[in-house]
Design goal:
The protein contains eight helices and seven strands; from the N terminus they run H-H-H-E-E-H-E-H-E-H-E-H-E-H-E. By secondary structure, it is α/β, with parallel strands linked by helices. The chain binds zinc ion.
């Protein structure tokens, strides 16, 4: 029988995406064995994240500053805006280092099944950013899933008549593919070959 403390940590870790009870137990044992090295580093990193991370009020990215480093970076092309479902997608695209514009995080995707409608996503703030002018191109970088594509089409419709060029990632993306899982070369290729939204 593990102690209450170990059970508590295991339970907390098991709730993380991609981990289950079994992986969580392994992680806990791994940490216990490295009480003097890896554990303090993790504790420190977690505390720092808890204290310092904020959501960017412009784009929805997560960073230690608001506006985030990307929104505040004057070297970025403010005329090009890439719309993504989640922060993880933003990070994946940015790791590919091809897109030099700015981002807008929707915070999810439209889903009738999960009861997610347009008002649950950061679409109003997107329309507001576009309405302020100064944006030439909107890259819709949704996942190549049914819900991702439904979301992309919905946003393209909402943008109709606005003076912006709407493009989407080329579908060298595997069907059902989530951006976060793609290697950087594939992502860069999809971005480079982006095409006008039909
Ligand atoms: Zn930002």
């Amino acid at each position: 029988m593990a102690s209450q403390e170990i059970e508590r940590l295991t339970g907390a870790l098991a709730r993380l995406p991609g981990l289950g009870p079994r992986s969580a137990r392994r992680a806990v044992l791994w940490l216990v064995k490295r009480r003097d090295s890896a554990l303090p580093q993790l504790v420190e990193a977690l505390a720092e994240v808890g204290e310092r991370l904020v959501e960017c009020s412009t784009c929805g990215n997560v960073d230690t500053t608001d506006p985030c480093g990307i929104c505040a970076d004057a070297k970025r092309d403010s005329r090009s805006l890439c719309v993504v479902e989640d922060v993880a997608d933003l990070w994946a695209l940015d790791r590919a280092r091809l897109f030099t514009g700015r981002y807008h995080v929707l915070g999810g995707k439209l889903s009738a099944l999960d009861g997610v409608g347009p008002e649950d996503l950061n679409i109003a703030s997107l329309m507001q950013r576009v309405g302020q002018g100064g944006i030439d191109e909107i890259v819709l970088a949704m996942n190549a899933t049914l819900e991702g594509q439904t979301t992309a089409h919905y946003i393209a419709e909402r943008l109709e008549g606005k003076p912006v060029r709407i493009t989407q990632l080329a579908h060298g993306l595997p069907v059902g593919g989530e951006l976060d899982y793609l290697d950087e070369g594939t992502l860069a290729q999809a971005l480079r070959a982006r095409r006008p939204m039909a």
